Amino acid sequence: MTDKPDDLTPDEPSVDDATVDDAPELDEAPDAGEPEASLSDEGDGVVEPGIVVEHDEEIELEDVPDVEPAYELQPGEDTVLAEAATTYDDTDEPDHDTGDADDIVAAPLDDEPAADDAGDDSTDLQPATADDDGGSAHWGRRILLGAVLVVGVLYVGGYFLTGSRMPANATIGGVDVSGMSPADARTAVDKALTPNVDREIVLTHGKTEFRIKPKAAGLALDLDRTISEAGGERSWKPADMVGLFFGDHKTDPALDVDDAKLQSSIGTIGEAVNREVVEAQITFPDGKPKAREPKAGRVIARADAANAIREAYLVSDEPVKVPTAVVEPAVDSDGLADAMKTIAKPAVSAPITIRVGDKKVSLPVTAYAPALVVRVKDNKLQPYLDAKKLAGPLTDSTTGIGKKAVDATVTIKNGKPVVMPGKEGVGLQPKEMAVKLLPALTESGSKRAVEVEAKVVEPLFTTADAKALKIKQKISKFETHFPYAEYRNTNQSRAAELIDGTILKPGETFSFNNIVGERTAANGFVTGTVINGGVFREELGGGVSQVATTTYNAGFFGGMDDVEHHPHAFYINRYPVGREATVYFGSLDLRFKNPTKYGVLVHAYVIKSTPSSPGTMHVELWSTKVWDIKAGESARRNGRTPGKQYDDTDRCVPQDPIPGFDIDIYRYFYKGGKKVKTETDTATYQAADHVICGKKPKSD
């Protein structure tokens, strides 16, 4: 509640005395012109409706205009006061707390004379007009409402217009569909792009070309979505409405993509394109450090490749360049050079002293160097010792410290496989020694030593290991025969001796050259006949190819995976056609892999030839049987006719002519009497010339 102003006398009427009931009846406001509110004839003060003004004469209110108040009357408030507040809400009169209606009194306006002092010099009060705020707001609202209605009508109309026609200047995958109906656009796109649905996508990397079949790569055209995304459906988006008339609208066909199939196709290309990064590494053959320089790798950029294939599908017959990314090695050449200086050279600079109690032995560089490698880990070059490779040389170098452990093995006795138990030893633990030796590798002088304790040493291949291989039965055998020759007896017997007892653990690969080694006199081989350059020659190890051929067939019928084998240059009729193998140390090897979950034992032996009887080369594989194998062959084809040549060198070996041909060999895999799969291998034989030792006669 506000206090009464000091200049209001008690005899002056308060707002409480001027009630709505005392006010004269108001006439309806005229339709036009400026409404006026007048005083009696003797007063010329003009007032706005609802203002109470003191005057000597009685005030008569008439012709009050219909002005919409900006103030809403609250229950209990005086109508006249509320109208006054509405009319003068923009004056400089200070704000008053309205309080309760009973506490409100009227006060003269600030800076204006009271009405009874007014006379001729009094200030005229102007009537409210339609141009004042009330009228402006009224008409403004009408204009705004009208504008909203117009925009709304246009917006709804635009919605219905979209979907009835394609945008202006619209193309889909290069097909012009500007202004067409969606149905016509669909027909046009279908006609232009459908012939390309099965067109192969060509990718290139350097001079290599790859072709992707869209269906195999999971690519297909989604025609309905293509039209929809290009503007062929109704839309509430203003941009789509405006786009019906303005701008360029280029869109690609919408595709239905099977990402798994697409990535599979990209992966196939990656197998040919990718190049493994070569990390820096240092090995120690013959006890000397040998560095391998790092090389950057390359991988196909799968995401970029997928995008490029999608973009090219249907709309382009230009080859797509296979996107790739470079994979940098973790350690560069400078890092390798530093490791060579700080790790590799010190590591093999001198033997390492091993102290076991009061005993002391020297471990030579040649004992641990083959087990040592400096390789990348955690982005830097670090030395490592392979405990398995260290075990043998460590035991041999420390015989004075303990007793050597004996590995378990499997052998054939009385026609059955027998596990020969392993035996414990006393000595140094390879794993412990590998850890102890590493810090000493880069030391020098007296610090180049380690102290360890002798412990019970388990064999590397224990009795339990041997039993777990489940070598139970003979799964294949093969034998070949050879004519009498002492070099054949010697060389084949030596090769069979080296092969016999070989055990292939699951996943391991048999290598003839690795097991037999180089055919030298020191290794027990003598000079014999070999095939070199398509003709017979005399060399060390002649005849061992018969051992390789027999072993190959044992692996063939034992279900081993063929990794590498090479038929002879020309056919030798004592071998099974197409199923034979020649070997030559350093170039031609015989390799097969054990694909089963069981161990495989190779048992090989020779029945030597005599002047009166041929010899027999015999190889067996023992394991747990998985397959029954049968062989087949095609007819011989592409016959080749031998020629004739003369050889007057002292190395000449006479040779009969042998025709050449091609032949396919089939391997059938059976299980439970049912054929499960078939493998095919093709053998190609060149013609063997008729070789005559001596000079060519003039008549020939």
**Largest sheet, spatial ordering of strands:** 9-8-15-16
Number of contiguous helices: 15
Overall residue-averaged pLDDT value: 80
Please indicate the percent range of residues in DSSP E strands (runs of 2 or more): 25-35%
Largest sheet: 4 strands, antiparallel
Uncertain residue segments:
1-65, 67-71, 76-128, 157-163, 232-236, 243-247
- Count up the domains: 4
Give Rg in angstroms: 53 Å
The backbone outline, from C-alpha atoms, is extended
Helix and strand content put the structural class at: alpha+beta
Question: How many β-strands, per DSSP?
Answer: 36
Helix content percent band: 10-25%
Terminus-to-terminus distance: 146 Å
Describe the protein.
The chain has 700 residues and is an alpha+beta fold. It folds into four domains: 1-129, no CATH class; 164-329, no CATH class; 351-461, no CATH class; 469-693, no CATH class. It contains 15 helices and 36 strands. It has a four-stranded antiparallel beta sheet. Strands 22-30-29-23 form a four-stranded antiparallel beta sheet. Helix 3 crosses helix 4 (223-229) and helix 10 (387-397) packs across helix 11. The relative contact order is 0.06.
